[in-house]
Amino acid sequence: MSTERKGVELYVGTFLAVGLAFIAAMLVRFGGVAKGFTDFYSVTVEFPNASGLVKDAQVLLAGARIGYVEDTPALLMRENFGVSVKLKIREDVLLPRDSNIVVDQSGLLGDCYIDVVPPAQFDRANFIKPNETVQGGTKPGLGALQQQGTVTLTKLTETLDELKKLTTDLNKNLLNDQNLKTLSDTFTNLKTTSENLSASTKKLDVILDKGDGAVDAAKKTFESADKAATDLRTAMTDFKKVAENAGKTMDSARSFVDTGTRVLKKAEHGEGALGLLLTDKETAANLKSFAANLKRSGPVFYKDRETAAPTPAPKRR
What we know:
Layout lengths: L2 H28 L9 E8 L10 E4 L2 E6 L4 E3 L5 E9 L9 E6 L6 E6 L14 E4 L1 E2 L3 H33 L2 H92 L3 H8 L1 H17 L20
Parallel strand pairs: 1-8, 2-7, 6-9
Antiparallel strand pairs: 1-5, 2-3, 3-5, 4-5, 6-7
Helix pairs in contact: 3-4
């Protein structure tokens, strides 16, 4: 065998070995051969709905693969229908008991898988035990969105039908020729009313101007009345003072009259100087003589003289 041929065989053998190694790696990676070299423990999860989940689907924790679905989901016959899914979890991975285990979907058209969402804080001494059954949930995927979209479209179609019927009734019953004519007449009347209102407003402006003048005149009248009332109050004050003085004068006159009355009463009884003059003739004669001598001689040359007795008047026959 030549050296050249041995070199070719060596290259071919190396290429085959690399190819077989690559194929073996692919089988281990994607064919599930590596499962036989890893220890797992079983956990049963009950879901209300596991649509799209198949055997050997991945089980992820925080985005990392920790196991797979052992069997196809089995139907549970209870009060509410559900499915039971058996999972195989790597022995070195412990699931917190408060974890939320849900069926999720990779993208809109991707495969379904099991997603384990641990709580933010959990008891590190409380984990799901092997062969234990726990409750799981679901996330709304494409099917749920399609179902909700179908319901929404149905309601939208019904609403559009009702709106179309309402529009038809409106055109038929409200927007007919008679109602349109009535509406046109209403707008015409409204225009006429607006014009009349404008004219009335102008007249009202004139009336308001006159009213302003009347208010000014009334204001001046009230000012005059106020001044007259002030003068009247002043006059009343003066009249009050006059009345008080008149009262005092009346009291003085009343006192004077009372004094005169008392003097006259005393004179009637012969008391006092006046009573003496009225009752004593001699005193009256002396006073008369004194007045006559004083008149005749004056106060400097005064001298007593006897006054001739008055000649008695002749008696009438």
